[in-house]
Amino acid sequence: MASTQTPTRPERPVLRQTLSSGSFIQDHQQYKPCAPVTQNIGDVLRGSGDVLRGPLMLNANPISPDPRKITDSGVTHSMFNSHADTLARDVPKLVATIFYKSASPVHPPQHPDVSSHVKPGERLPSPTVPVGSAPTVDIEKLPREPPAPEPEPLDHLYGPYVSQLCLTNFLQIVESLHTPYQRMNSSHRCLDRDEQPRVVEVTFSPPPNPEYLPFADLRKHESIWRFEREWNVEVVLQQENVFRRHKRLAVFDMDSTLIQNEVIDEIAKFIGVEEKVSEITARAMNGELDFSASLKERVGLLKGVPADVFEKLKSIITISPGARELCKALKALGFKLAVLSGGFQPLAEWLAGELGLDYAFANHLEVDEASQTLTGKLVSSFPIVDAAQKRSLLHSLAEKHSIPISQTISVGDGANDLLMLHAAGLGVAWRAKSKVQLEAPTRLNGESLVDILYLLGLDESDINDLTTV
Fold this sequence. Notes:
- The protein is of the alpha/beta class.
- Among the domains are: 94-110 and 149-240; 249-467, Rossmann fold (3-Layer(aba) Sandwich), CATH 3.40.50.1000.
- Helices cover 29% and strands 14% of the residues.
- Strand 2 and strand 3 (199-205) form a beta hairpin.
- Helix 4 (164-176) packs antiparallel against helix 6, helix 8 runs antiparallel to helix 9 (274-285) and helix 9 packs antiparallel against helix 10.
- The termini are far apart.
- Keywords: Amino-acid biosynthesis, Hydrolase, Magnesium, Metal-binding, Serine biosynthesis.
- Residues 1-22, 105-152 are annotated as: Disordered.
- One of its GO terms (molecular function) is L-phosphoserine phosphatase activity.
- Belongs to the HAD-like hydrolase superfamily. SerB family.
């Protein structure tokens, strides 16, 4: 008679503790020196047959190193150790100077519902547009579309400086831009200090293939822009060559660059038309108005102002932080320096004397000799120093001193500076208007004009030597 006993159901396999790893380091023994092999395959298997002695440990190294014989290799891996440039010679290279924006540390956005700045019943503050990220900062003039999500600010997590992870992330981004993909070699220098640097210079090669990604497009690549937003830094890209490090001519805008004032607005205060003049000035600097036409319109409002107004203005003019040190360092290096201003000649000449500049070019206001007041007109025998004239003066000064245009620097903040910024070997939009920051080849928004010296490859000790002579 057949047995009615129910067959025993096989047990379901169970994941045992021995099948999972308990340590990442144990699974990756390459981080330790190789230990001598004291076991063989016969010790691991049972001997004959296919039956194992015990459960086989998966995801683990069955030949374990002897911890008593592990020794320190003596090799220290650090991204910030000083070392010689190991990049190959005669290979195209790019230099990225990374500045941490210490004046405006980024913190995680706080939800309005938990904001301590908004009391019950109060309206939430209007959203703002980051400077330099759009042609206008007026939220009402932007397209009616949901704003793109802001990148997560990371400097509050990894430190208010150019951290090792920040630098690693940058190199990963640049390497990912190669088409087709190509491994990249790089070296770096901390230009201000080795610990928690604010300015780091990264040299890498080869650059992305210009047939796929031209240098001008690389400078404005969305991935680099996002990197800047995430890490609260600014990146200046330059092609590495002898002319990057050895410039000979520097030209500067005056208003809101070498000085913090807009001179024509200061004059307008004397006759109570400051608001109207300031509005025209702002639109002209943003490129919304023709500069020459707007200048004539503003000058017309100054009719009747005493001609000695420029002497009175000297006491309220504020020279920008770092301007004196920058000019002193450049003069010590043998530079020719000039101010090319859309402002007025008397103050441009005074500023040239204050900073030791070689040339001063600006607009000339007509004066009524009888009443010693401004007539509200420009002297017709002098050309208006507009965008085209600034570029022309840059070229003529370079030609006069037999200086290649690649060995020139131009610095400005307004739309009337864009032509000379693009013409110079290095054109820097300094704390510029939003449209100018978008269109300029290089932009910086630091606290001191001394930052421009870092773009020449100078470090802090070099700058100290040049400014104390």
